């Protein structure tokens, strides 16, 4: 699928309902490549990625927080974005950039995605969502879990936001 970057971001919307068909290996490879090519501060690349396609694991991930993660149960693919905070002091920013690259790559391939914030979110059971993801995916304690991106073919159609909906009042010239 060939489209301009501006058209890509105009059309992109989060999807929380997916078809059951799996994401092809070729498309997954391109998404992973995009993640690995994402910029990071001083090229330290503190991020790592856990690719999940197993239905039972996706179901377990969907329950790690009470609000906002349920869609992962029906996603045919998820990518957990984790980082080593000892490697880079701006790992939060670097993982956010990588997650954005993942979402834009998915969009460019005719897929949809949705970001599930994990860092600093509670699990609804007195613990933290990141701890639950770490347990489910056997992520080492030294790594921080930033987010989990659900990806698949959309089972819902959403139009991109209209330009008239953009809040240009948030843009300031030459100073605030």
TrEMBL record:
GO terms for molecular function: oxidoreductase activity. Coiled coil: none annotated. InterPro entries: Nitroreductase, Nitroreductase-like, Nitroreductase/BluB. Gene3D superfamilies: NADH Oxidase. It comes from the Bacteria. Pfam families: Nitroreductase (PF00881). Residues 9-62, 70-153 form the Nitroreductase domain. This is Nitroreductase.
